[in-house]
Specification:
Blueprint (H helix, E strand, L loop, with lengths): L1 H7 L6 H14 L1 H14 L1 H7 L2 H20 L2 H17 L4 H22 L4 H25 L8 H30 L5 H8 L5 H8 L1 H4 L6 H24 L5 H27 L5 H14 L7 H15 L3 E7 L8 E7 L2 E9 L5 H69 L5 H31 L7 E5 H11 L1 H6 L3 E6 L4 E5 H18 L5 E9 L4 E8 L33 H11 L4 E5 L5 E8 L6
Parallel strand pairs: 5-7
Antiparallel strand pairs: 1-3, 2-3, 4-6, 7-8, 8-10, 9-10
Helix pairs in contact: 2-5, 2-8, 3-5, 3-7, 6-8, 7-8, 7-17, 8-15, 9-14, 10-13, 11-13, 13-14, 15-16, 15-17, 17-18, 18-22, 19-21, 21-22
């Protein structure tokens, strides 16, 4: 049944990489999501009254954060029973499922906003996987809610425990089969051995069943008796075959083939018990709900609205077993079992339906309410996405014009500036030049050098922003790059008598552009030196985070630090901060912007932590996925 869930929502192995990305976002933006979820609960009159108190609302807003992380990180064999449990908890406390649909829609909105904010190049693919996982979550949760049975009341650990019991039974019988086959092939089989095989109570499986009776009977009542009956049938059938073989009524090859078939059949039966734990197929309404939700999620909203509303109507009409007539119109019809009013696309609509089974009205009203809410939320999300895309396009156009202008102007400045610097250096080296002229030449060289560095940074920044800077990736030893930068900055370190500590594995390797990675370390370490005091302390660390599948570098100093409220602004172009009693330290204001652009071009992340007067730590990561395969 696991395969059914995955196939309905078309979840593949490749989607797991995007799920891992969503898991990282759930951690990175955890506080923001939790806060907005809390606000949603506080605004919602139903949940506010239902949960009875701000403390319960706060607890639920925190609990949903863990739910999201599990949704995007758990293996499917753990995830499905986990979601089942959540749905059953909702059923036991009688939580209205319209809230569940609204909560999933809120998460879709929040993550969509975050994904656009992160400016990923493959936004559509990420959003598609987000929809798949949220759709799967909603379908399973509703499945367990409407099933109303104790079938899935397992924690992840209980589920694993029962699977281990079943696997233990399977292993025992595979061993038994191998022993029987070995005795037949070596002609070691005897009547006494057959008599032992005939008695299922002498098989180790009987002991396993008795020992774990309580756990197994939680699947269904008398589960142990059912397995025991099948087990006894298997032993009798195998012993009958062996007696016929000993009496030479059947040849060796046929005996082995038939015992192999019986063994595989018994193992398949045991596998079906695990499948039964995952999903209960008696109630066809559940599969119907899943299919309709999946079809509503996959509606193409990029069409004229009349086409969209007709498709929504047809999805319900063609896939609902309990409905024999359904009409969607802009006015209420009489003579229908159910008539539901809803608002979408700035007008009211009525869903009118007649039922095949009249006593299922309450159930069908609840289900239709879910379909309508889901449709409304998805349509609203589509409208929001259009607005986001328009805003993003406007920002991209604005940014593109700005970057072209910067690149053009700075190129025009760099050419004469190089000439001025060359002339000043030539003037300084000329004979018979008075001391005053030499000093002027030195000042021109110093100021011109700073200006040229500033211009070069603007050009690099413009290239990064317009994606004109090609990445020349290769395997690099991180420690080698760090040592090279330290060598360049050694005079500044010595001048301030800074204690530098390095904690990087010599074998730590990253697949990246060597020159650009060197620029990143140079900019961050250069800033640390700039803001640290005399005889200050800087620590550079590097390691592989296998859980997040990325390389992490941190550069920490005990300098003046910065205001934590500016932790995002410091990566913006031209932003500079006056720190405490210190004036703004002069610079281009582009160093950290360049760092951010380089790291993001590598698919990594960059951030900083600080307190005023207590130093700062800058972190950047590069995905291990960037390594050569």
């Amino acid at each position: 049944m696991l395969d059914i869930f995955l196939s309905i929502f078309d979840i593949s192995e490749t989607d797991k990489d995007y799920a891992n990305l969503l898991h990282k976002l759930s951690i990175k933006y955890g506080k923001k999501i939790s806060t907005q979820f809390y606000d949603f609960l506080m605004r919602n009159g139903y949940t506010k009254n239902f949960l009875r108190g701000e403390s319960e609302i706060l607890r639920l807003s925190k609990t949903q954060m863990q739910y999201q992380r599990n949704l995007f990180s758990l293996d499917f064999y753990d995830l499905i029973p986990y979601i089942y449990n959540v749905g059953l908890i909702h059923y036991r406390i009688r939580l209205d499922n319209t809230y569940v649909v609204a909560a999933h829609s809120l998460l879709k909105n929040l993550y969509t906003e975050i994904i656009f904010e992160e400016k990923y190049s493959n936004v559509k693919e990420i959003l598609k996987v987000l929809e798949k996982y949220l759709g799967l979550s909603l379908a399973i949760m509703l499945h367990s809610y409407y099933e109303r049975s104790d079938l899935c009341l397992f924690s992840v650990n209980e589920f694993k425990s029962i699977v281990d019991i079943i696997n233990n039974i399977k292993r025992s019988h595979i061993t038994n089969y191998d022993n029987i086959r070995g005795m037949i092939e070596k002609d070691d089989l005897s009547q006494d051995i057959v008599e032992v095989i005939k008695d299922p109570k002498k098989c180790y499986v009987s002991e396993i069943l008795e020992r774990h009776r309580h756990a197994l009977d939680r699947i269904t009542v008398d589960m142990v008796e059912e397995i025991s009956a099948y087990h006894s049938t298997y032993h009798v059938a195998v012993s009958d075959l062996l007696i016929n073989y000993l009496n030479k009524n059947i040849v060796k090859e046929d005996t082995l083939q038939r015992i192999n078939f019986l063994t595989k059949e018994f193992l398949s039966y045991l596998d079906s018990i695990v499948d039964m734990m995952i999903s209960h197929e008696k109630n066809t309404i559940i599969l119907e709900i899943m299919l309709i939700i999946e079809k509503i999620i996959n509606i193409n909203f990029k069409r004229d609205f009349p086409e969209i509303i007709i498709e929504f109507q047809n999805i319900i009409k063609e896939n609902s077993n309990l409905i024999n007539e359904l009409i969607l119109s802009d006015h209420e019809e009489t003579g229908f079992d159910i008539s539901m009013k809803f608002f979408v696309n700035n007008r009211y609509y009525y869903l009118n339906a007649n039922l095949c089974v009249k006593n299922k009205k309450f159930l069908q009203e609840s289900v239709l309410k879910i379909y309508i809410n889901l449709f409304q939320e998805l349509f609203n999300i589509h409208i929001q996405e259009i607005k986001y895309l328009e805003m993003a396009q406007q920002l991209l156009e604005s940014e593109k014009i700005k970057n072209i202008f910067l690149a053009s102007v700075t190129h025009e400045i760099r050419t004469p500036l190089n000439a001025i610097l060359g002339f000043a250096q030539l003037l300084k080296k000329m004979r018979n030049v008075d001391e005053t002229t030499v000093k002027y030449a030195e000042k021109i060289i110093e100021a011109g050098g700073k200006l040229l560095d500033y211009v070069n940074k603007i050009i690099d920044f413009s290239k990064l922003q317009t994606n004109k800077l090609a990445l020349n990736k290769k395997d690099n030893k991180v420690l080698t790059i760090v040592n090279r930068v330290i060598s360049i900055l050694s005079s500044l370190l010595s001048e301030k008598k800074i204690k530098l500590e390095i904690d990087i594995d010599p074998n730590l390797t990253v697949y990246a552009d060597e020159k650009l990675l060197e620029d990143v370390v140079f900019n961050i370490l250069g800033n640390a030196i700039k803001f640290v005091g005399h005889e200050g302390h800087i620590v550079i660390r590097g390691y592989e985070d296998t859980a997040m599948r990325e390389m992490v570098i941190s550069i920490a100093d005990d300098g003046i630090g910065f205001d934590p409220k500016n932790k995002d602004k410091i990566f913006e172009p031209f932003f500079q901060e006056a720190r405490g009693d210190n004036p703004i330290v002069k610079g281009s204001g582009l160093g950290l912007s360049i760092v951010k652009s380089i790291i993001e071009n590598h698919g990594g992340r960059v951030w900083a932590e600080s307190e005023l007067g207590k130093g700062a730590t800058f972190y950047f990561t590069i995905p291990l996925l960037n390594k050569k395969s």
